[in-house]
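Trying the structure run again after the queue cleared.
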Amino acid sequence: MNNNKKGTNKKNNDIKKTIMRIVSTLILALILIVIQIISDLFPEEVNNYIESDLNIPINDTNVITVSTLESTVVTKDSKLSIHYFDVGQADSELIIATKEDGTKSVMMIDAGNNEDGNNLVKYIKALGIDRIDYLVGTHAHEDHIGGMAKIIKNFDIGTIYMPDVSTTTRTYENVLTETSKKGLGISTCNIGDTFSIGSGICTVMNVRNEEQNDLNDTSICLHLVYGEKKFLFMGDASENMEKDVAWLGVDVLKVGHHGSKTSTSEEFLNQIKPKVAIISAGKDNNYGHPNIETLERLESIGAEIYRTDEQGTILLTSDGNTYNIEGIKTNIDGNKTISNKGK
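Done. Tokens:
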């Protein structure tokens, strides 16, 4: 009789334990479902709570980590100069790295509007430059590659980089035509690719080599290290591209998309923390660039802001340890030149 009672009690205990395990599993599953729903509805708030309040880092496996050098060796009497050209509501930068023996490495990023081409050629020729080692069209919009055909025609060109995304515009076709005439090809770069500019190293931080809803989101984004100084060129990359990468701190930021509110997000700025921000935009342009919200975000992190619509062409020079920035008046904006001729 006692054995039967003991057996019954054991059986009941086993049943209770099984029920408790099932209930616990159901409760845990319910908690996980609730957490997932909250996380889906409020992703930023949840991540901020985990990182800030619980002090647990969030590792987004979709974010790309790109390795760059902390510094490069710059010999005495070597120097870097970057012209952030005033090409109105467009974009163009010329990077010249001069070594101690006087040899120059030259990279040009974008070439303004169609009307800027001849003026850019004239200005660059006046600097004593007849070869451009790297010509980068960040993406195929006219305000970035408009003058590229004239640049290709008038200079000895090393390598041309553009995203592997084509368009049917006349501007893009002109670039292809001049490239073909010179027996050149257009190279595709990939994230992490590097190339040397004198004593500097340039790294491709982001590019999308496939069709996007917006050509801006194919932009080639370049990181340049020269000595102890770091520079970032964002093309017209929007916040969507900014989210792709784990960005590193820089000294000077060439602000994306002319200071549009769709670029230069707070999260992006908190990663790179630039000391200087340079914006290329046309005076009194129809787009409202640079956007006031973007300017406020830059001011909030303490960045010193330079604007081509206010200071003209921005000239930065550096020995790798320090840099100097000044605005210089040039006559490169082709649309302004045409407007003045009509007066």
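Confidence is low (pLDDT under 50) at residues 54-59, 338-343. Worth checking whether this holds up in the mutant runs.
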